[in-house]
Amino acid sequence: DEIPYSPNPKIRLLQVSNIGASLPQENIYDNWKECNPQSVDGFSAIGYFIAKQLSSKLNVPVGIINSSWSGTPAEFWTPAKYIENDKELLNNAKLFKPAPARPYEYASLWNAMIHPLAGYTIAGTFWYQGEGNVGTYKSYDKLFSGLIKGWREAWKSEFPFYYVQIAPYDYKSPANEQKGALLREQQTRTLALPKTSMAVVTDLVPDVNNVHPTRKKEVAERLANIALAEVYGKEIIDYKSPVYKSHKVEGDKIVIDFDYLQGNLKVKGKDIIDLLIADESKNFVPASYRIEKNKLIVFNKDIKNPIAVRFGFTDTSMPNLFNSADLPVSPFRTDNW
Fold this sequence. Notes:
Blueprint: E1 8-15, E2 33-35, H1 37-40, H2 45-58, E3 62-66, H3 80-84, H4 87-93, H5 108-114, E4 125-128, H6 140-155, E5 161-164, H7 179-189, E6 196-199, H8 216-230, E7 243-250, E8 253-259, E9 266-267, E10 275-278, E11 285-286, E12 288-292, E13 295-299, E14 308-311, E15 321-322, E16 332-333
Parallel strand pairs: 1-3, 4-5, 5-6
Antiparallel strand pairs: 1-2, 7-8, 8-13, 9-15, 10-11, 10-14, 12-13, 14-16
Helix pairs in contact: 2-8
């Protein structure tokens, strides 16, 4: 629908060819193109809509480099030393098997599709990946943090790195190990790195059996707003999703505090979906709740000594708790069971 309306001399696109290499490269085979129906067809939809929003809001030309390869794990995009210096990451990287017309060596896409760009002045990076690492979720924060540090090291710049939490999808995980939820938890931990932010998209999924959700424009708007607020100084209230900060037990209730929350919480619907509470039995049951401005108070009349809360902590959960700007609260758990 958008392609016929795409001509825009203020947007330039650079599509990096899908090539892998065993050693870091210095050049790419591609060049900048003005945004038009021919150049935008096949380009990243999220990248295009980010550029359109930034250019419109800032009234400046915007260039977007799209360097991506569908279905690839983060190991392929990480400088080799960050994998080779860690036994767990190296063992995971060796699990990938050769396949026709597909890369399979760690660092191969970093070498050919990112390294040639190192040093080229950029305002920041947007990253949307993680599905390819659900099977090895336990080390994703370590892997992803290494990737970010490696890129920044190559650029000699601590540029902003904004990423999308993976969307709800049915990974056919066992009930006691919801691997998609556990990967999202790992992604949330990466926020400990400076100049990182995360867009949550649990409300943008029409079909949990499609690993590529179709609502790209809304994802782009969330990423662009983070950049507008944090890079370009625009005043935007509640421009990113609340993330679990801490909790305290007060009698038979658990009070949850959130980071990145300026306004108040709100529920769309009658009750919060997928909100659970447990005592020392570790048996989670549906929870009642009360919202007091920016705090979530969780309880169940049958649980007198609660210990833990889980919210939206399944592979396919699409919960309905939002901030004042209609951005969903990131799924979380307070336990480590």
